[in-house]
Design goal:
Strand content of chain B: under 5%
Oligomer: heterodimer
Shape of chain A: globular
Radius of gyration of chain B: 19 Å
Largest sheet of chain A: 5 strands, antiparallel
Largest sheet of chain B: none
Strand order of the largest sheet of chain A: 12-16-17-11-13
Strand content of chain A: 15-25%
Order of helices and strands of chain A: HHHHHEHEEHEEEHEEEHEHEEHEEEHEE
Structural class of chain A: alpha+beta
Distance between the termini of chain B: 39 Å
Helix content of chain B: over 70%
Number of strands of chain A: 17
């Protein structure tokens, strides 16, 4: 059958359905067939999709600008009390005081800062996240067979005492999700960070209502592109994004102030050696990070997420903002490296001794019973593993994912040559996690490890999975203790 | 042909990145997968930049790499039974090239902003709900107290009117 003209009702109807994501599988197949058979249809399809993409981008950008204008318009109200003060008669005002007043007024006008609290409605922010994405109408995924994992017992008291640390110090260790922002105005980027923080934070432990983030008006509209799967604490994320927008950050007590950096924006680039960022840094066992394969890979991955790709000699053209952002990502990994992390015991057992596990997981009580049983049998763990949180080792069966001030555990199902046997069997006990740092990527098979950061860890859920290295064998992975950070 | 140096990359990449995103979006419906592919394509473009022939349009070269990445994407092959073929993607790329040749993205963007300035507030709100807040047609219909069909028709009409407005402002023929 000949494809219809591009302006025909048949083609336009299918195209409209496709644009509105209401096309059936048959319509979608029909559309692609017409596109491949008719240059005219291909052209119309391209024009419509290009236009739709542009429309979405432009509308978002306009909304952000409007929001920024709205917020800016509110700022002067805070200075009203000073205007209400009686003004001295001009002749009575000393000359130097007038100069100071004039300078102050100019400073206020020139450096209008905006309080980003309260944040804009969630709906206006969350769509900028790369994931979780709205389900595709064409290909809805099957529901996971794995139920949500029960939380581990908390090691700390139920009502924690107020932290002696200031709020911004706490926020320098409070991890928010991976970030994805494409040409996002700085003001909106800060609002997005705030939204992510609020989603994870508990007001009883983090008094977020007291937090003030200020952004200079002159930088509100600067656009930032930043995609990273690396977990970042809130304050480090603020510093990274501010740097990309050509701003410095001053953080004190409950206030984070972005300050315009006195340089031309967009920022100029210069040649730098990426691995210089690892100079002087050590792993837990004292190895220089420059010699640590996993951290080197992580550094390159972080650099790539910022659009930095080194040449053969390890140098790359980097702007000061990119460099500062990469420094924050590196510091974040070092911070993870310094935390007390859990250790896991691995027992390899004949399949008939497998403990009864629902969806491949043992509850904390079952895990406890299992360990008692192993002790009774005089069994010692076949292996003790300590997953790293600062860089993922593809050969480790577990990964630790920082989340707020906790960690989550996920089975490592990364498809790598070093770990070829860990893929298919994982699917038997849980959904595949291609990138455990991806938002929502591992929610269904994770545990909470509250207390890991406090230095203790209660026994909690355990994983039970097939061991492909031996036939009819399973492995049980149980958290047993928390590693102390290096002195 | 002399190989381009990497300091020429950004000036070429930045103007086409929105267009590239639209191209990937035309073939991949899952927004998360789109973002993944876009990032992968950007990395490949950077890594292979020395192989780029500056006498060819950068956008066309980028779309060629995007086609390969889209086809490589395991999720697309596994989850979408109607995933497009290489031939279909090539046809789409040709369509993009033809549309791009008519007017650059940046010119259209400026024109679109002007057209949006003229929209009644209710129409602007509909577009915001759909494209900024990513509401479904169902949600918008509920918010606006209108039928699904009415919202569907309104959005369709708005898109058409805006496209025509952009075409008029750029002095292009209206289809």
């Amino acid at each position: 059958m000949m494809p219809p003209p591009a302006d025909s009702l048949a083609f336009q109807t299918v195209l409209e359905h496709w644009l509105e994501e209401t096309a059936t599988a048959e319509e979608e197949a029909q559309l692609w067939q017409w596109v491949s058979e008719s240059a005219e249809c291909a052209r119309e399809f391209a024009a419509a999709t290009r236009f739709q993409g542009m429309l979405a981008e432009v509308i978002k950008a306009r909304d952000v600008e409007e929001e920024a204008r709205r917020v800016l318009a509110l700022a002067p109200r805070e200075r009203e009390p000073t205007r209400a003060l009686p003004r001295p008669a001009p002749q009575a005002q000393p000359h130097p005081f007038r100069l100071v007043a004039l300078a102050a007024a100019l400073a206020l006008l020139g450096v209008v800062t905006v309080l980003l609290w309260p944040t804009p409605p969630a709906a206006s922010i969350t769509e900028h996240r790369a994931a979780p994405a709205p389900a595709s109408t064409a290909a809805p995924g099957p529901p996971s067979p794995v139920p949500p994992a029960p939380a581990l017992e908390l090691a700390g008291p139920p009502n924690p005492k107020p932290s002696p640390m200031s709020l911004v110090e706490q926020l320098d260790g409070f991890f928010i999700g991976p970030l994805s922002m494409e040409a996002m105005p700085l003001g909106q980027a800060m609002a997005l960070l705030r939204q992510l923080l609020e989603e994870k934070a508990n007001e009883s432990t983090l008094p977020l209502t007291a937090l003030h983030v200020t952004v200079p008006a002159g930088a509100m509209g600067r656009r930032v592109t930043f995609h990273t799967q690396t977990p970042l604490p809130f304050l480090k994320a603020v510093r990274a994004i501010a740097a990309l927008a050509g701003c410095d950050v001053q953080a004190q007590e409950q206030t984070i102030a972005l300050i315009l950096h006195p340089s031309v924006f967009p920022l100029a680039v210069e040649k730098k050696k990426i691995t210089d960022l690892l100079a002087g840094r050590l792993t837990r066992d004292g190895t220089p990070l420059r010699e640590d394969r996993l951290r080197l890979q992580a550094l390159l991955s972080d650099a790539a997420s910022l659009g930095i790709v080194p040449a053969q000699d390890g140098t790359a053209l980097v702007s000061s903002g990119q460099w500062a952002a990469l420094l924050q990502l590196t510091d974040s990994r070092d911070y993870l490296n310094s935390l007390p992390l859990p250790t896991f015991a691995v027992y390899r057992l004949p399949a008939h001794l497998a403990p009864s596990a629902e969806a491949g997981m043992l509850t904390p009580e079952q895990a406890d019973d299992f360990l008692n049983q192993m002790n009774g049998l005089g069994r010692t763990p076949d292996e003790i593993i300590s997953p790293r949180a600062d860089a993922q080792d593809p050969s480790e069966p577990l990964v630790l994912i920082p989340d707020g001030d906790d960690f989550r555990i996920a089975l490592n199902t990364t498809d790598t040559p070093e770990n070829p046997t860990m893929n298919l069997p994982m699917n038997a006990v849980g959904p595949e996690v291609k990138d455990p740092y991806a938002i929502g990527g591992s929610d269904k098979i994770t545990n909470s490890l509250n207390g890991a950061g406090a230095g203790t860890l209660s026994l909690g859920n355990a994983f039970v999975l097939p061991d492909l290295s031996l036939p009819n064998t399973i492995q049980v992975i149980v958290p047993v203790q928390t590693n102390s950070p290096p002195p | 042909m002399s190989a381009p140096s990497h300091d020429q990359f950004l000036p070429l990449f930045l103007p086409v990145q929105s267009d590239l995103r639209a191209f990937i979006g035309a073939a991949v419906r899952d927004p998360a997968a789109r973002d993944d592919i876009f990032q992968e394509v950007a990395v490949v473009l950077w890594k292979k930049f020395e192989a780029y022939d500056p006498s060819r349009p950068f956008g066309a070269w980028a779309r060629g790499i995007a086609i390969r990445k889209i086809l490589e994407d395991r999720r697309l092959r596994e989850k979408s039974p109607t995933a497009c073929t290489a031939e279909q993607l090539e046809a789409l790329a040709a369509g993009f090239a033809a549309d791009e040749a008519e007017a650059p993205w940046q010119d259209r963007e400026k024109a679109l902003n002007r057209c949006l300035d003229q929209l009644p507030s209710r129409s602007a709100r509909l577009l915001r709900e759909r494209y900024h807040q990513n509401h479904s047609i169902d949600q918008i219909a509920e918010n606006e107290g209108m039928s699904l069909d009415a919202i569907y028709q309104s959005l369709s009409r708005l898109r058409r009117q805006l496209r025509e407005c952009v075409q008029r402002r750029l002095g292009l023929a209206i289809d």
